[in-house]
């Protein structure tokens, strides 16, 4: 199967970035992660990309004249490397039309709740505070809304009386790290077949 060139966009720790890169290195997913796009100069994920010799485009939105301007630069960075797919992994910004149009149906996101419940920031904290019994992980295509695009896959996680926000976060992240590579694998295989 042909290797697909992909970019990961992230803003934080990068545990999902790591899971995707490891799966691609192990041959578990047929893609090469060629670029990390990061909007925070102090994000831990940058070091992870550097250790793996993956190119990084790190920017500070304040240094650009608006979202269109920095997204045009991101598009350029992607085009220079022939990027075909984008995986959002804790990238805490909405994607605008400059990237949505050229990457139609090729930008996916992971979110730590069963959408449409608990969109936006701190989804794990929101679920914990509402005392729901079941939450989970969603992987979905991106549209112009906040965590609103068509859902591709979900996995439920039970919240028990013993759980703290920290243990819930650990359970969610463990599911994320196995679910994201699996979904990427099935989307890329599907694309190859059609
Ligand atoms: C992940 O839990 C991801 O689902 C979440 O950010 C975390 C990033 O962790 N994304 C969102 O909340 C998007 N709305 P990581 O940096 O360790 O991969």
UniProtKB/TrEMBL annotation:
UniProtKB keywords: Purine biosynthesis, Transferase
Q: CDD domains annotated for this entry? A: FMT_core_GART
Keyword Transferase included in the entry's annotation: yes
What residues does (6R)-10-formyltetrahydrofolate bind to? 67, 92-95, 109
Catalytic activity annotation: N(1)-(5-phospho-beta-D-ribosyl)glycinamide + (6R)-10-formyltetrahydrofolate = N(2)-formyl-N(1)-(5-phospho-beta-D-ribosyl)glycinamide + (6S)-5,6,7,8-tetrahydrofolate + H(+)
Enzyme class, one word? transferase
Q: Which residues bind N(1)-(5-phospho-beta-D-ribosyl)glycinamide?
A: 14-16
Q: Which residues are the active-site ones?
A: 111 (proton donor)
Write down the InterPro entries for this protein, in alphabetical order: Formyl_transf_N (IPR002376), Formyl_transf_N_sf (IPR036477), GART (IPR004607)
- Is Transferase given among the entry's keywords? yes
Q: In which pathway does it act?
A: Purine metabolism; IMP biosynthesis via de novo pathway; N(2)-formyl-N(1)-(5-phospho-D-ribosyl)glycinamide from N(1)-(5-phospho-D-ribosyl)glycinamide (10-formyl THF route): step 1/1
EC number(s) from the headed UniProt entry: 2.1.2.2
Signal peptide location: none
Domain Formyl transferase N-terminal per the UniProt entry, residue ranges? 5-184
Query: Which family does the UniProt entry place this protein in?
Result: Belongs to the GART family.
Per the entry, what this protein does is:
Catalyzes the transfer of a formyl group from 10-formyltetrahydrofolate to 5-phospho-ribosyl-glycinamide (GAR), producing 5-phospho-ribosyl-N-formylglycinamide (FGAR) and tetrahydrofolate.
Stated name of the protein: Phosphoribosylglycinamide formyltransferase
The protein's gene is named purN
């Amino acid at each position: 199967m042909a290797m697909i060139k992909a970019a990961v966009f992230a803003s934080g720790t990068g545990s999902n970035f790591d899971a995707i890169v490891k799966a691609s290195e192990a041959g578990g997913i047929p893609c090469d992660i060629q670029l990390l796009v990061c909007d925070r100069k102090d994000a831990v994920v940058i070091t992870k990309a550097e250790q793996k010799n993956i190119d990084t485009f790190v920017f500070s939105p304040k240094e650009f004249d608006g979202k269109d301007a920095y997204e045009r630069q991101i598009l350029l960075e992607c085009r220079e490397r022939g990027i075909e797919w984008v995986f959002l992994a804790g990238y805490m910004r909405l994607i605008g039309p400059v990237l949505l149009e050229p990457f139609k149906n090729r930008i996916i996101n992971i979110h730590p709740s069963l959408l449409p419940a608990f969109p936006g920031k701190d989804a794990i904290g929101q679920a914990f505070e509402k005392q729901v019994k079941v939450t989970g992980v969603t992987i979905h295509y991106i549209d112009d809304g906040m965590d609103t695009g068509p859902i591709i896959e979900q996995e439920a996680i039970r919240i028990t009386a013993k759980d703290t926000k920290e243990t819930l976060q650990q359970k969610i992240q463990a599911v994320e790290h196995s679910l994201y590579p699996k979904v990427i694998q099935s989307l890329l295989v599907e694309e190859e077949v059609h």
